Amino acid sequence: MAKAVREHLIKMLAKGEFVSGQEMGNQLAISRSAISKHIKALIEMGLDIYSVTGKGYKLSQPINLLALDQIINAWPDNETVPEIEVHSLIDSTNSYLLRRLPNQVSQGQVCLAEFQSAGRGRRGRQWISPFGSQIYLSMYWQLSQGLSAAMGLSLVTALAVSEAIYVNTNIRVQLKWPNDIYLQGVKLAGILIDLEGQPLEPSHSVIGIGLNVNMPAQAAKQIDQKWTDIQSHSEQKIDRNSLCAQIIYQLVVKLERYQAEGLTTMIDEWNTQDCYLNKRVKLLTGERVTKGICRGVNNQGALLLEVDGQIKPIYGGEVSLRGDE
Ligand code: ATP
Ligand code: BTN
């Protein structure tokens, strides 16, 4: 119920014009004090709403909401668009698709949201997900060869997001094994892959992408590491709908290629964008720190770490990579 009321209020305010509490109350058949509570909740979600006595509530600037028709209009070719759902408020786009496994999802199905109340990063970390200014996108992808193909997924996804950003904005990003996208040395986007299934049987993956487009100041205060967003690096206004279309398109293209050919043909592409290639790095595994030189990735998507002159493949999981200059 609260969700439906808040979604309605967002639509009323989206143009960036004043709307009186009275008008809101009339449309929703609730009291003005109830409206005031919902507005407070929307502000906590990251919406920059203020009020002026006698005029009502107003967004500091209009928001260009995500819209399925605009995503479809921006689709780059004449091929069929996968099933796309656009949600306003959700717990987590990844969790949403996971709840629909195994029978209520189709290959390439996408869930997008304006706000996540429980956005997740790796290892149970929180992904800060303010309303209406970023991209939270999840795609279902069946792995017909089983979970053994899962390791390469985050690399393929990072390459797809990188290509989409370049096509739409002309900005070149860097990639950090296994799941991060960096811009000028700081985190721009993260990738979270959720898996269900067995090693040699057809399995399910949900590929989640959190991409900072235009970070609101309030939300930024909650992030405990350096971050950036695309808008800070572009003079043109970033259109989230067309960026979403391009990301979904590139994902499908690259995932189909991965399914048919594996990672082999994408390794050069990864290496040219790898922010640590041939640099000194530290590999953090729980309390353990291994120092070495990053020598790119292998056909399975494992990191190649040179330690004492020997190159070892490091498979993903509970590991983090850091620079060691
Ligand atoms: P690694 O994968 O190497 O461990 P990481 O420290 O970035 O890198 P992740 O689990 O990939 O860890 O990402 C989650 C972390 O990202 C959170 O702990 C938080 O510090 C940060 N974070 C959360 N929300 C955002 C956001 N919107 N933009 C950038 N960073 C964020
Ligand atoms: C990370 O860097 O640890 C990964 C962050 C992934 C965040 C995205 S936002 C869309 C999808 N839904 C989630 O709950 N998480 C991913």
Commentary on this structure:
The protein is of the alpha+beta class. It has 3 domains: 2-59, Winged helix-like DNA-binding domain superfamily/Winged helix DNA-binding domain (Arc Repressor Mutant, subunit A); 68-271, BirA Bifunctional Protein, domain 2, CATH 3.30.930.10; 276-323, SH3 type barrels (Roll), CATH 2.30.30.100. It contains 9 helices and 14 strands. α1 (2-13) packs across α3 and α2 (21-28) crosses α3 (32-44). The protein is globular, with a radius of gyration of 21 Å. The N and C termini lie far apart (53 Å). It binds adenosine-5'-triphosphate and biotin (BTN). The site of biotin has 21 residues, from α5, β5, β8 and β9.
Q: Kindly estimate the percentage of residues that lie in beta strands according to DSSP.
A: 25-35%
| CATH fold name of the largest domain | BirA Bifunctional Protein, domain 2
Q: Helix share of residues?
A: 25-40%
Bound molecules: adenosine-5'-triphosphate, biotin
Rounded mean pLDDT score: 94
- Low-confidence stretches are none
Shape call: globular
CATH architecture label name of the largest domain: 2-Layer Sandwich
> What's the structural domain tally?
3
State the major sheet: 7 strands, mixed
